[in-house]
Amino acid sequence: MNAYMTNGTIDFLLKLEEKHKDIDFYFMTSNSGALAYYEGNGKSIFNAGRDYDILLEKGAISEDGYVVMNNIPVVEDGQATFEKRFMQGENNIDMMPGFQAYRFLKPLKGNTYVVFTQWRSAQDFENWKNSEHFKQSHKGQSTKPPAYYADKPFTTAYHMFDKDNA
């Protein structure tokens, strides 16, 4: 299964739904713009998008909530080590209050992996970040980035777009 996403204005992205009625899109907005996301098999419908292989998934993405994406550039010869760390890690994130969905996404082009989490609210995400569970799942990580990082990771956050109240 693959994940596909692209950025643009919300007005432009919403038109995709009219053209592709067979696709379940998720629309998200932030201070810097909007994002359309969907999952499926085959070729992406986006001209200028990003395509990913879903390596790990938990939960179902909801049309309501708060999404945080950790974007992690990984050098080519470090990808196997990086993936193994995520695939074997103790990840009980789905037990946290407010958790909705998790996706570990490997880029089909480029080197930036995405760790996608969706929460009922931004407060639920903050509660998880401040939890003992978060500390346990991130223990052993030094302040120095691993050698397999190609660049500094960055985070993007979105609120799911409510089409009914637009």
TrEMBL record:
EC main group: oxidoreductase
Annotated ranges, domain ABM: 66-158
Enzyme Commission no: 1.14.-.-
GO MF annotation list: monooxygenase activity
InterPro entries assigned to the protein according to its UniProt record, in alphabetical order: ABM_dom (IPR007138), Dimeric_a/b-barrel (IPR011008), Heme-degrading_MO (IPR050404)
Record key words, sorted: Monooxygenase, Oxidoreductase
Gene3D superfamilies membership: 3.30.70.100
Pfam families: ABM
Name of the protein this chain belongs to: Antibiotic biosynthesis monooxygenase family protein
Gene source species: Oceanobacillus kapialis
